[in-house]
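Why show two proteins at once? Because comparison is the fastest way to build intuition. When a single record is shown, students tend to memorize it. When two are placed side by side, the eye starts asking what differs. So, the first record is below.
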Amino acid sequence: MVIGVCGYGYSGSGALLDYLRQWDECSCSLTVPEFDISYVPHGLQDLEYQLMERRTRYISSHGAIRDFKKMICGMDTPRCRFRKLTGNGFWARSFRFIDELVQVSWRGNTPIDRYGKGFTGSIMAGRKRHLISIYERVSGRKWPYSKRDTMYLSVMPENFYDSARSYLRDVMEMLGYDLGRTVLLNQPFDVYDPRRSMKFFDDPKAVLVDRDPRDIYVLAKCYLRSNGAFIPTDDVEDYIRYHRLVRNDALPSDPDIMRMRYEDLIYDYERTGKRLTDFLGLGDIGSGEKKYFDPAVSIDNTQLFLKHPELAGDIRRIEEALPEYLYPFEKFSLRPRHSQEPF
């Protein structure tokens, strides 16, 4: 089984990872980056769309395969953890996966190869096309240097899903996961529509973690700074729109997908643990309980908005605009000490 712990960005999924890696039956690695190959732009979902669902006259499979290869090269730079953990293994296995899907390849080019070159590049490409047309008209021959790129064609390959699952199994193994145990992955499924990503994994289960919007706002604005720049905090109204839009995903009920609140791990520890183990089919936690996650310590990561009275106006506005996302702290007698910085 593959357990995917998924969050919206600093919404508490890391705490759930720490909680679940207390089980000996789970194979987990903190050295592996977010395992988001399936849904990152130009990843497996984009590849699936162009090869399996839609194709265009511009040979969209060529563009999708080219972009997937560029994405892999970006993930496999010398300083990247994939390279550090697998050597050339990740790069080589990724390109072999593509080779399994390509049905026809040849030397040539397509109009999409000219896109994205910027203003100067577009001017130069236009002049080159003009010179080529003059050459061919005068000489009566085809321009001899037009076949400069490898073209890829793949239309509804029957082996797509089997090859994708085999590819991810091999990558997980190269990264050090024990596939004979329950594999615990960080962010392997798209939190907005996990089922689309889950099809690339064997026996997947997804747990989606969210957090009180007041704490996410304070965390991004006051502590994360540039690391949290993907969350708008300069204007509280922008933050409110952002929070609501990225969670505007009314997913149907799914027996393999569970939603939970980060705060439940702290304020309702026993009942939340039972709910998780029942859903995931995990056995007894044994002597490892609270080895990596201790609610008595993590409580200091909650109700951060109380530490910042200077943001009282913004917090009040969030409470007015996003009441359905607020955590009911008032139902519990536990209170954070806030004796240290959030972690």
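Second record. Ask yourself what differs from the first in the token line.
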Amino acid sequence: MNLNPEIANTTGVGAVYAPTWLEGFTASVDFYNIEIEGAITSLGAQQYVDRCFAGDAYLCTFVTRDPTTQALTHVSILPANVLSQTARGFDIEATYRLPLAALSDSMDGDLTLRFMGTRSLRMTTIDVLGQTIEGSGVNAEGMGTAPSSGFWMPKFKANISATYSLDPFTASLTMRHTSAGVYNRQFVECSTGCPAATALNPTIDNNDIPGASYFDLALSYRIDGERLEAFASIENMMDKDPPQVGGSLGGAFFTGSGALTVYDIMGRLFHAGVRFRY
């Protein structure tokens, strides 16, 4: 298949705040707007068929039919140029480092609080038929008709951590948070009096997917200065399950295949080891 190069226009604006009245505190906000013409992606098999049926001759080249019966025999899952993609949002980061001796002479070590978050405003794809698909606020591809991988993301994601350091020991507690979202922004949610479903706007009785927060604990101890360090960590300390998400394989369950960066599907994990430099 012939592919044309992508052309992108990118705008980024940022600001940093480090007040003199609060020593140890810094914050930054970065706005981004990325517009891509002729973006390349691999669609799902059903999307190739649907777009071909809708009249897109270009995507029909990915679909093979029996020359006699015209029955569908094969769909090539290969990269294709879509018309455009726009990603827009904010990245926010704030850090506060506090020597505990500033609170009390009897307290040692440093406490560092850190926040890192991303707020998605748009994740819009306009395909070769001029159809608009909005992926901002989409949390999973469990239904098989969500925007194709890389063209969707939750509205808000954040990591919040608190780290205590007292050389040679360090302990860190982190919360990973994802906001609630939907299967697909194109779905029409209704239970009665539903409009006629279409390939681009199917109906669904529940389009909501819950958000989630996970807690991780990490410990480390330097044994030989900077050369040797022992560490241990627990991911998903509370052993929180991912939300139940309807999948294309049937039933009410979480398939995990389309949202590994959104939800923790492994459960509680333990790690331990030694790092060394030479």
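One difference worth noting in the second protein: The domain at 7-42+79-276 is CATH 2.40.170.20 (Maltoporin; Chain A).
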